[in-house]
Write a structure and sequence with these properties.
Blueprint (H helix, E strand, L loop, with lengths): L1 H13 L16 E8 L4 E4 L5 E12 L12 E10 L5 H4 L9 E10 L5 E12 L18
Antiparallel strand pairs: 1-3, 1-5, 2-3, 3-4, 5-6
Length: about 150
């Protein structure tokens, strides 16, 4: 019986071993992922310093708790995420017309604490998951510029 345990022991631990590498594993991650629909076409803007950047808002809708009354509909809640990206090389690609209002996108950002301890988000990438369609368009009445 003990020989069976001994022979299976190395196999169980082998799954957790790592091939030789001179770099450490990346165990700690602080990131934000937002999957939702664009509230408007991605806009190209210019900062006060004359640097180009892009701005867009992503709407994320989720269902609320089940209704307490019989026959009542479940509420839907929408959160808005306002995102800016100051990477000049991305401006032409993102403003070329593929990222339009209602498109389903994945936006990713790294989270780091700022000097005062509040979270600071650094936009990393945006990916088009599905182009917009009339069926999935975001209503103008839901979006108020400058509010999240």
């Amino acid at each position: 019986m003990s020989s069976i345990l001994r022979s299976s022991l190395p196999l169980r631990f082998a799954a957790f071993s790592r091939a030789f590498s001179s770099t450490g594993t990346k165990l700690n991650v602080a990131e934000l992922r937002v999957v939702g629909r664009l509230g408007s076409d991605i806009e190209e803007m210019t900062s006060k310093n004359g640097k180009p950047y892009i701005r867009y808002a992503v709407a994320v809708s989720s269902l609320g708790p089940p209704p307490t009354e019989e026959g009542a509909e479940r509420e839907t809640f929408t959160q808005w995420f306002n995102i800016v990206d100051f990477t000049p090389s991305r401006v032409p690609f993102l403003t070329a017309g593929k990222f339009t209002k209602g498109s389903l996108v994945l936006a990713e950002a790294d989270i780091r604490p700022s000097a005062d301890g509040s979270p600071m988000y650094r936009h990393r990438r945006i990916q088009l998951l599905a182009p917009s369609s009339k069926r999935h368009s975001v209503e103008d009445s839901e979006f108020v510029a400058g509010q999240a």
